[in-house]
Structures are given as structure tokens and as C-alpha cells.
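In the laboratory, one determines a bound structure by crystallizing the protein with its ligand and collecting diffraction data. In a computational setting the workflow is compressed into a single prediction: the sequence and the ligand go in, and a structural description comes out. We illustrate the idea with guanine.
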Amino acid sequence: MATIIDGKALAKKIRLELKEKVKDLNNKNIYPKLAVIMVGDDKASQVYVKNKSKACNEIGIDFEEFLLPSNTNMETLLNLIEVLNNREDISGILLQSPIPEPLNIREAFNKISYKKDVDGFHPINVGKLAIGEECFVSCTPLGVIKILDEYNIPIDGKNAVIIGRSNIVGKPLSQCLLNRNATITVCHSKTKNLEMICKNADILIAAVGRQKFVTENMVKDGAVVIDVGINRNEQGKLVGDVDFENVEKKASYITPVPGGVGPMTVAMLMNNVIEAATRQKN
Ligand code: GUN
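The predicted complex, in C-alpha cell form:
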């Protein structure tokens, strides 16, 4: 039976550490502040933003929300980002995705100063990650690496298989693991022999968006299984991408959903905002 990774407890511990860090910064007259832009009234986004606001509040990070109506045009959105880029009191800017059509989210992400890009979505940060330079890394991959480190799970020399090649999770996570000397395979919808590839993984990461996608026949005995999926099952319950009940019997470590990677993502966002504030004052 696997050790079930307690992402909720770990995230809480990290938030307490970050709270102390903010106190130290405040003593040096540095006040980290996150600006969140939300366009339209996407219900899931409202929940995510509320969680981010709560975490900021708990840690002592200032928080300012910019709610734009769904008929906002690109020029207005870009102008707001420009204003926030230039505001010295704002350390980090997060544009909550999705935004309504026909707005172009990539153009908007690219407009955010890479120095305030706490999501790690700007091409400069993506490029810096690829060449192993200090940069902002998107929060979910960062949370996964933090979980592995906190549970003393070695990465160096291990076979890591990632299912999913998104710009938010799969691609940056592959770079993070490569920078830590893992051997990486990134699988996707066109991958052949998926089962065989996954079965070779010491660390198997699922970021697909389909419940019970990872079944026990795809998992090597003793593998570390990290579930990044967030899905609703037929009963409306939150579930990941992994058939938890059966895979748990084979894995050495496994993250549950909820309570695994999810809480770590918000904690890593807080980490990035504090990091942004620190770098801007140096
Ligand atoms: N929407 C869902 N997840 C995210 C995220 O990590 N960052 C942003 N900006 N929007 C999101």
C-alpha cells in the first residue's frame, strides 16, 4: 500500500513559513501585493480567485482584484495590464484564465511584465526555465516538485513519465524534472504504447483531465504517482485522473484528489508573489 501524500497539510505548513517570510519583508518595508484580473463571470474562476484571496489574507500578502465585464475589449485589458506593470506597489499580476472570446489570452499574458509574471506564463520565463535560469515557474509544476522534495523522493536519474503536454502543467513540469536530472517522457493523445511507457516510470504524473485514465496495469510496483487531474465524476464528486483505489495498492507514494497537488498550487503562487516582491526591491 502506498503512502498517501498529504498536500493539504504540506500546503498549510508552507503557508505558515511564508507568513513568517512576509513579516521579515515587512520589517524591511517590503509589502508583497498580488493583483488579480478576472474578465467575465466564470463560476469556477470565481472560486479559484476567492481561494487565492483567502491565502493572501492568511499570509499577509496584499490583494487587489480587478473585475472586468465580459464585453471588455482587448485594448482596455492591455491598458489595465500596462497600468499594473507600472504600479510600484504591485509585485505580481495574475490574469485568471479563461477569458471570454474573442479576447486573446496569449496576447494578454505576453503583456504582463515578466518580472511580475507570478504564473510563469510569459515567454521570457518559459525560455529561462528551458535554459535553467532563475525565473518564475508556473505554480502547479512547482507544487509537484515541492511535494517530491518534502517527501524526500529522489528525482535525480529517475524515469519520469508525464501524461499531458499542456503549457501550464506538462511542458513546464518536464523542464523542471529535466533540470533536476530526471529522464523525461512526455505522453499525449498521439502517443503509441502508452501503457508500456507508463509501466517504466519511477515517477508517473497524470495531467490529462479524464477520470480513471491511469489504471493499475499502467503502474510499476513501487512507482510514485502524482495526480494533477481535476474532474467531476457522475456523482459530482471531485476526482483526479488516477484510479486511486486500485493504483494505491501498487504505488509507493500517491497524491489524492482532492487534497494532493491542488492546495500546493495556491501555496506556490504565494511563494512566487513573495519572490517577485523580494526581487523587485533588490
Ligand atoms: N485558471 C486555472 N488555473 C489557472 C492558473 O494557474 N493561472 C491562471 N492565470 N488562470 C488559471
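The first helix runs from residue 7 to 27. Keep in mind that any predicted model is a hypothesis to be tested, not a measurement.
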